[in-house]
Design goal:
It is a single chain. The chain has 261 residues and is α+β, with helices and mostly antiparallel strands. It has helices spanning 95-99, 103-117, 120-126, 177-188, and strands at residues 25-27, 33-38, 45-51, 59-66, 69-75, 81-85, 89-91, 133-136, 144-146, 161-165, 172-175, 195-197, 220-225, 236-245, 248-258. Mean pLDDT is 90; it is low at 1-7 and 9-22.
Length: 261
């Protein structure tokens, strides 16, 4: 796969340096704020609350496993320490540095190739070790989570999943990944599209388009397939949320955007 010729090109200027992660963290997957507790645990006392866009969080290196959740001890911006669920932290990567990371092109090419040959094994190699793969049929529809261990079988899995509702018709969107999501991904990747960084290209639509607020600190790349005419709703964009783990980029989230009435 890695030896395949490039299928995409980066829309910004030629990358010059890799993004670095691991020295600090940022808040993710919260609504308005992330509660900090002392000691670790959801029943412990609240000692602070970090806003959903908080970045530059330092960790002490102390962690503890509570049930299935790993809690991390952090340094508070105002001084002192507290504990948060590690699920709500991600390595803090500056958006400008992210967009100059040359590894994004390779990640994008490998993802497209995995879709085209329907290889769950290749997809699993790209997915976040911390989260697996999270898919949203539309940015406002709920998350559908596939654990890392289930990704190798994603294309063959026949079980119907609930992807949310169609806002135009009000009907539920149900079906397997292969029946519902894959055709809409391949619709964008039927040509060799350039990708944009931290920017969502759109077409004509009556509804607001936004990167989900709970992903504020998660950088992304996006692929856009334009509509045949400026007034047509028949356009589609897929955004790929990228999470850094030990300084390396992985695919964490897939979010679709499309024209709506």
């Amino acid at each position: 796969t890695q030896n395949s010729p490039p299928a995409v090109t980066n829309e910004p200027a030629s990358p010059t340096a890799g993004a670095a992660g691991g020295s600090s963290y940022a808040v993710v997957w919260v609504g308005e704020s992330l509660v900090v507790r002392q000691p670790a645990g959801i029943t412990s006392s609240q000692v602070a609350a970090l806003p959903a866009d908080q970045r530059g969080i330092g960790v002490t290196g102390q962690s503890t496993l509570l049930g299935s959740s790993t809690w991390l001890e952090i340094f508070l911006p105002v001084g002192g320490t507290g504990w948060v669920n590690g699920y709500n932290l991600t390595e803090d990567v500056d958006p400008d540095s992210f967009c100059q990371d040359p590894r994004l092109v390779d990640l994008a090419n490998r993802f497209i190739h995995a879709m085209q040959i329907q290889s769950g094994d290749e997809l699993a190699q790209l997915a976040s070790p911390n989260r697996g793969l999270i898919i949203r049929h539309d940015w406002w529809n709920p998350e559908v989570v596939t654990d890392l261990g289930a990704l190798p079988h994603l294309f063959q899995e026949a079980a119907e999943l609930n992807w949310g509702i169609n806002r135009d018709s009000g009907l539920a969107i149900t079906g397997s990944f292969g029946d519902v999501i894959l055709p809409q991904l391949l619709d964008v990747f039927s040509v060799a599209p350039p990708f944009s960084c931290n920017r969502i290209a759109t077409g004509s639509t009556a509804e607001q388009v936004s990167w989900p607020p709970e992903y504020t600190n998660l950088n992304f790349i996006a692929f856009h397939r334009a509509a045949p005419s400026p007034t047509s709703l028949n356009w589609r964009t897929w955004a790929l949320g990228i999470e850094y783990v030990n300084g390396s980029p992985y695919l964490a989230v897939l979010v679709q955007y499309r024209g709506e009435i």
